[in-house]
Amino acid sequence: MSCGQLVGRGELMVAKSDSSVSQAKACKPYQKPTLIKAAVLSAIAANDGQISGSQFCWVARAAFGGADIRWMIFRAWLLEDAPAWFRSLYTRYGEAVGTWLAGRDSARTVVRALMVPAINRKLKR
Predict the structure, then answer these.
(1) pTM for the full model?
(2) Number of domains within the chain
(3) Running DSSP on this structure, what letter comes out for residue 16?
(4) Which residue range forms the structural domain that includes residue 54?
(5) Strand locations in the chain, DSSP E?
(6) pLDDT value at position 28?
(7) Which of 2, 59, 75, 101 has a CA-to-CA distance to 82 between 20 and 30 Å?
(8) How far is it, in rounded angstroms, from Cα 35 to Cα 52?
(9) CA triplet 111, 52, 84: central angle to 5 degrees?
(10) Cα separation of 88 and 25, whole Å?
């Protein structure tokens, strides 16, 4: 069990060491997650995910799902940082590929794996 985890009727589970004496680990207090060094996330959050022309990113939405913010981050990368040749191919064939991906879980997994490095690069900027 993890440090500070409540069990049963409010009892605190304490981790035991190899010795017979039980020792409580020092627990870090909970800190609310915050967005750090990710201006693209702040921009997306400010727009509540409503990016103009959001129908453009068919493949990323098919790969990640419409509720996952990663498709929006990929879209920001595509529009702002992707090579022109890739953006052109995506614009030309993206809708057909996105339609094809629907219901193909193994293909979606592969596409997600290919998109994640671009998403990570966008988040690091």
Answers:
(1) 0.60
(2) 1
(3) B
(4) 39-124
(5) 6-7, 11-12
(6) 79
(7) 101
(8) 22
(9) 50
(10) 55
Reduce the DSSP state of residue 50 to 3 states and report it. coil
Round to whole Å and give the CA distance between 71 and 74: 5
Whether residue 33 is contained in a domain is answered as no
The CA distance from 66 to 88, in Å, is 22
Query: Is 11 part of a structural domain of the chain?
Result: no
pLDDT of amino acid 111 = 94
Is residue 62 in a domain?
Answer: yes
Is 51 within the bounds of a domain? yes
Query: In the structure encoding, which two tokens stand for residue 85, read together?
Result: 């040749």
Question: What whole-number distance in Å separates Cα of residue 122 and Cα of residue 91?
Answer: 20
Give pLDDT tens digits for 20-78: 444 455 677 877 765 555 566 666 655 544 444 456 789 999 999 888 889 999 999 99
Picking from 50, 89, 86, 72, the residue whose alpha carbon sits closest to that of residue 123 is 72
